[in-house]
Write a structure and sequence with these properties.
about 120 residues, binds zinc ion, single chain, HIT family, subunit A, binds guanosine-5'-monophosphate, globular
Length: about 120
């Protein structure tokens, strides 16, 4: 049975298939899909299928699952051809960072020069 938080969460709805997304990779525990408003030529979001609010919560609750997310980040970056030129991985965490979706997600950005991080 799904919790209220799960039912209320946009990315849980993508995991369940209730909301469509352009999937890039799926594993037993993670999902990668294209950001709906890409900020770079390649902009992919990588999430654990299980709901955690942010990367700090996930890392402390389930280190193996956090590792699974990072493994999917690495494989997606490789498949997208981002490794040679480089890419950026961002976990916005909480209000000050502007986290808008409260289901932990890695932004994987690349495919063009990205400039300084805070430009
Ligand atoms: P945050 O600001 O929480 O780190 O990033 C949330 C990201 O989710 C944003 O880059 C935004 O474009 C993306 N996003 C929001 N709604 C949807 C959606 O319905 N589908 C997809 N694929 N991405 C979304
Ligand atoms: Zn969720």
């Amino acid at each position: 049975t799904m919790s209220f938080v799960t039912m209320d969460c946009l990315f849980c709805r993508i995991v369940s298939g209730e909301i469509p997304a352009t999937l890039v990779r799926e594993t037993d525990t993670t999902l990668a899909f294209r950001d709906i408003m890409p900020k770079a030529v390649s902009h992919i979001l990588v999430i654990p299928k299980e709901h955690y609010a942010d990367v700090a919560t996930l890392a402390q609750a389930d280190a193996k699952l956090a590792s699974d997310v990072l493994e999917t980040v690495a494989i997606v970056a490789e498949h997208e051809g981002l490794v040679a030129d480089g890419f950026r991985v961002i976990f916005n965490t909480g209000e000050y960072a502007g986290q808008e979706v409260s289901h932990v997600h890695a932004h994987v950005l690349g495919g063009e020069p990205l400039g300084p991080m805070l430009a």
